[in-house]
Protein backbone atom coordinates (compact mmCIF):
# COMPACT_ATOMS: atom_id res chain seq x y z
CA UNK A 1 0.00 0.00 0.00
CA UNK A 2 1.22 3.49 -0.82
CA UNK A 3 0.71 6.26 1.73
CA UNK A 4 1.42 9.86 0.71
CA UNK A 5 1.15 12.63 3.30
CA UNK A 6 1.14 15.94 1.45
CA UNK A 7 3.93 17.95 3.05
CA UNK A 8 3.30 21.39 1.57
CA UNK A 9 2.83 24.77 3.29
CA UNK A 10 -0.38 25.39 1.36
CA UNK A 11 -1.88 22.08 2.45
CA UNK A 12 -0.82 22.76 6.03
CA UNK A 13 -2.37 26.23 6.04
CA UNK A 14 -5.66 24.99 4.57
CA UNK A 15 -5.82 22.11 7.03
CA UNK A 16 -5.23 24.46 9.96
CA UNK A 17 -8.20 26.55 8.85
CA UNK A 18 -10.38 23.42 8.62
CA UNK A 19 -9.37 22.36 12.13
CA UNK A 20 -10.31 25.76 13.58
CA UNK A 21 -13.68 25.35 15.30
CA UNK A 22 -14.58 28.99 14.49
CA UNK A 23 -14.43 28.47 10.71
CA UNK A 24 -18.04 28.88 9.48
CA UNK A 25 -19.61 26.41 7.02
CA UNK A 26 -19.37 28.64 3.89
CA UNK A 27 -15.65 29.16 4.46
CA UNK A 28 -15.19 25.53 5.50
CA UNK A 29 -16.65 24.40 2.16
CA UNK A 30 -14.35 26.69 0.19
CA UNK A 31 -11.24 25.60 2.09
CA UNK A 32 -12.19 21.92 1.83
CA UNK A 33 -12.46 22.29 -1.93
CA UNK A 34 -9.05 23.96 -2.16
CA UNK A 35 -7.40 21.29 -0.03
CA UNK A 36 -9.07 18.56 -2.09
CA UNK A 37 -7.53 20.16 -5.17
CA UNK A 38 -4.06 19.88 -3.62
CA UNK A 39 -4.70 16.24 -2.66
CA UNK A 40 -6.00 15.43 -6.13
CA UNK A 41 -2.89 16.84 -7.79
CA UNK A 42 -0.74 14.66 -5.54
CA UNK A 43 -2.91 11.62 -6.28
CA UNK A 44 -2.27 11.91 -10.02
CA UNK A 45 1.36 10.84 -9.41
CA UNK A 46 0.24 7.22 -9.12
CA UNK A 47 -2.39 7.21 -11.87
CA UNK A 48 -1.69 5.45 -15.17
CA UNK A 49 -0.92 7.61 -18.19
CA UNK A 50 -0.24 6.90 -21.85
CA UNK A 51 2.14 8.54 -24.32
CA UNK A 52 0.47 10.53 -27.09
CA UNK A 53 1.73 12.38 -30.14
CA UNK A 54 0.53 15.97 -30.54
CA UNK A 55 1.12 18.75 -33.04
CA UNK A 56 2.18 22.08 -31.59
CA UNK A 57 2.05 25.18 -33.82
CA UNK A 58 5.72 24.48 -34.60
CA UNK A 59 6.39 20.74 -34.49
CA UNK A 60 5.33 17.27 -33.40
CA UNK A 61 6.09 16.19 -29.86
CA UNK A 62 5.33 13.40 -27.42
CA UNK A 63 3.24 14.11 -24.35
CA UNK A 64 1.29 12.19 -21.74
CA UNK A 65 -2.41 11.82 -21.14
CA UNK A 66 -4.09 10.37 -18.07
CA UNK A 67 -6.30 7.40 -18.75
CA UNK A 68 -10.07 7.78 -18.13
CA UNK A 69 -10.96 8.16 -14.46
CA UNK A 70 -13.91 7.44 -12.24
CA UNK A 71 -14.36 9.48 -9.05
CA UNK A 72 -16.53 8.16 -6.24
CA UNK A 73 -17.36 10.28 -3.17
CA UNK A 74 -18.67 8.53 -0.07
CA UNK A 75 -21.89 10.31 0.87
CA UNK A 76 -22.29 12.77 2.33
CA UNK A 77 -18.95 14.19 3.44
CA UNK A 78 -17.15 13.16 0.24
CA UNK A 79 -19.27 15.65 -1.68
CA UNK A 80 -17.11 18.41 -0.21
CA UNK A 81 -14.17 17.12 -2.26
CA UNK A 82 -15.97 16.28 -5.49
CA UNK A 83 -16.01 19.68 -7.19
CA UNK A 84 -12.23 19.99 -6.97
CA UNK A 85 -11.81 16.73 -8.89
CA UNK A 86 -14.39 17.55 -11.56
CA UNK A 87 -12.74 20.93 -12.13
CA UNK A 88 -9.37 19.27 -12.68
CA UNK A 89 -10.86 16.50 -14.82
CA UNK A 90 -14.05 17.79 -16.50
CA UNK A 91 -14.41 14.52 -18.43
CA UNK A 92 -14.37 12.36 -15.28
CA UNK A 93 -17.20 9.91 -14.65
CA UNK A 94 -18.84 10.17 -11.21
CA UNK A 95 -20.28 7.41 -9.05
CA UNK A 96 -21.72 7.56 -5.53
CA UNK A 97 -21.62 5.30 -2.48
CA UNK A 98 -23.76 5.91 0.59
CA UNK A 99 -22.35 4.41 3.77
CA UNK A 100 -23.66 4.91 7.29
CA UNK A 101 -21.69 4.09 10.43
CA UNK A 102 -23.37 2.38 13.35
CA UNK A 103 -22.67 4.54 16.40
CA UNK A 104 -22.42 1.50 18.68
CA UNK A 105 -20.25 -0.85 16.61
CA UNK A 106 -18.63 1.79 14.35
CA UNK A 107 -19.17 -0.61 11.43
CA UNK A 108 -20.63 0.68 8.14
CA UNK A 109 -23.72 -0.34 6.24
CA UNK A 110 -24.32 0.61 2.61
CA UNK A 111 -27.61 2.32 1.86
CA UNK A 112 -26.90 3.60 -1.66
CA UNK A 113 -24.72 2.59 -4.58
CA UNK A 114 -24.67 4.11 -8.05
CA UNK A 115 -21.49 3.27 -9.95
CA UNK A 116 -20.62 3.83 -13.61
CA UNK A 117 -18.74 1.14 -15.58
CA UNK A 118 -15.45 0.52 -13.77
CA UNK A 119 -13.99 -2.43 -15.63
CA UNK A 120 -10.34 -1.68 -16.40
CA UNK A 121 -10.46 1.87 -15.01
CA UNK A 122 -8.79 3.70 -12.13
CA UNK A 123 -10.93 5.21 -9.40
CA UNK A 124 -10.44 8.08 -6.99
CA UNK A 125 -12.34 7.41 -3.76
CA UNK A 126 -13.22 10.52 -1.73
CA UNK A 127 -13.58 10.05 2.03
CA UNK A 128 -12.44 13.12 3.99
CA UNK A 129 -12.03 11.35 7.36
CA UNK A 130 -10.24 8.00 7.40
CA UNK A 131 -11.04 7.00 10.98
CA UNK A 132 -11.67 3.29 11.67
CA UNK A 133 -11.35 2.53 7.98
CA UNK A 134 -14.64 0.66 7.93
CA UNK A 135 -16.41 2.84 5.37
CA UNK A 136 -13.33 3.16 3.17
CA UNK A 137 -12.76 -0.59 3.25
CA UNK A 138 -16.37 -1.34 2.29
CA UNK A 139 -16.17 1.23 -0.50
CA UNK A 140 -12.91 -0.23 -1.81
CA UNK A 141 -14.47 -3.66 -1.85
CA UNK A 142 -17.41 -2.35 -3.88
CA UNK A 143 -15.11 -0.65 -6.39
CA UNK A 144 -12.89 -3.70 -6.75
CA UNK A 145 -15.91 -5.96 -7.27
CA UNK A 146 -17.10 -3.57 -9.97
CA UNK A 147 -13.81 -4.06 -11.81
CA UNK A 148 -11.66 -1.05 -10.88
CA UNK A 149 -8.03 -1.80 -11.67
CA UNK A 150 -6.62 0.68 -9.17
CA UNK A 151 -8.12 2.70 -6.31
CA UNK A 152 -6.63 5.81 -4.74
CA UNK A 153 -8.22 7.12 -1.54
CA UNK A 154 -8.15 10.88 -0.94
CA UNK A 155 -8.64 11.82 2.73
CA UNK A 156 -8.22 15.16 4.45
CA UNK A 157 -7.25 13.37 7.69
CA UNK A 158 -6.28 9.80 8.51
CA UNK A 159 -5.94 7.90 11.78
CA UNK A 160 -3.31 5.19 12.26
CA UNK A 161 -6.08 2.67 13.04
CA UNK A 162 -7.77 3.26 9.69
CA UNK A 163 -4.54 3.08 7.75
CA UNK A 164 -3.65 -0.23 9.41
CA UNK A 165 -7.07 -1.69 8.59
CA UNK A 166 -6.82 -0.72 4.93
CA UNK A 167 -3.25 -1.95 4.66
CA UNK A 168 -4.43 -5.38 5.75
CA UNK A 169 -7.67 -5.52 3.77
CA UNK A 170 -6.61 -3.69 0.60
CA UNK A 171 -2.82 -3.81 0.21
CA UNK A 172 -2.97 -2.47 -3.36
CA UNK A 173 -4.73 0.72 -2.27
CA UNK A 174 -2.95 4.08 -2.41
CA UNK A 175 -3.83 6.73 0.19
CA UNK A 176 -3.25 10.47 -0.17
CA UNK A 177 -3.90 12.60 2.92
CA UNK A 178 -2.99 15.96 4.41
CA UNK A 179 -2.20 14.52 7.86
CA UNK A 180 -1.94 11.31 9.85
CA UNK A 181 -3.31 12.34 13.24
CA UNK A 182 -2.60 10.84 16.66
CA UNK A 183 -5.41 8.38 17.31
CA UNK A 184 -9.12 7.68 17.58
CA UNK A 185 -11.06 8.53 20.73
CA UNK A 186 -13.64 6.24 22.38
CA UNK A 187 -16.30 7.44 19.90
CA UNK A 188 -14.03 6.69 16.90
CA UNK A 189 -13.41 10.37 16.16
CA UNK A 190 -9.97 11.40 14.93
CA UNK A 191 -7.88 13.29 17.51
CA UNK A 192 -6.97 16.15 17.23
CA UNK A 193 -9.04 16.00 14.05
CA UNK A 194 -11.52 18.68 13.04
CA UNK A 195 -14.84 17.36 14.29
CA UNK A 196 -17.56 15.89 12.08
CA UNK A 197 -16.59 16.86 8.52
CA UNK A 198 -20.11 16.45 7.13
CA UNK A 199 -21.74 18.47 9.90
CA UNK A 200 -19.23 21.29 9.49
CA UNK A 201 -19.49 21.17 5.70
CA UNK A 202 -23.27 21.47 5.65
CA UNK A 203 -23.83 23.41 8.88
CA UNK A 204 -25.88 20.67 10.54
Fold and architecture overview:
- With 204 residues, this protein is an alpha/beta fold.
- Helices cover 33% and strands 33% of the residues.
- Strands 1, 4, 5, 6, 7, 8, 9, 10 and 11 form a 9-stranded mixed β-sheet that branches. It has a two-stranded antiparallel ribbon with strand order 2-3.
- Helix 1 (9-19) runs antiparallel to helix 2 and helix 2 (25-43) packs across helix 3 (79-88).
How would you summarize this macromolecular structure in one to three sentences?
By secondary structure, the protein is of the alpha/beta class. It has helices at 9-19, 25-43, 79-88, 134-145, 160-169, 197-202, and strands spanning 2-5, 49-55, 60-66, 69-75, 93-94, 96-101, 108-114, 122-126, 129-130, 150-158, 174-180, 183-184, 190-191.
User: Low-confidence parts lasting 5 or more residues at pLDDT below 50?
Assistant: none
Q: Which architecture would the CATH scheme give at its second level?
A: 3-Layer(aba) Sandwich
Would you tell me the overall average pLDDT?
A: 93
Write down the CATH class: Alpha Beta
Give descriptors for this structure.
204 residues, two-stranded antiparallel ribbon, nine-stranded mixed sheet, 33% strand, Rossmann fold, alpha/beta, 33% helix, globular, 13 strands
Secondary structure: elements and pairs:
Elements: E1 2-5, H1 9-19, H2 25-43, E2 49-55, E3 60-66, E4 69-75, H3 79-88, E5 93-94, E6 96-101, E7 108-114, E8 122-126, E9 129-130, H4 134-145, E10 150-158, H5 160-169, E11 174-180, E12 183-184, E13 190-191, H6 197-202
Parallel strand pairs: 1-11, 4-5, 4-6, 4-8, 8-10, 9-10, 10-11
Antiparallel strand pairs: 2-3, 6-7, 12-13
Amino acid sequence: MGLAVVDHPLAGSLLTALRDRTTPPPLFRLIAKRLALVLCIEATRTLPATSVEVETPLASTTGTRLEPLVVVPILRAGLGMLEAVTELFPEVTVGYLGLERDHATFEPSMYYSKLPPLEGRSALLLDPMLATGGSASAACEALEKAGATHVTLLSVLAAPEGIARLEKAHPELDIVTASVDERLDSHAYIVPGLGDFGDRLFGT
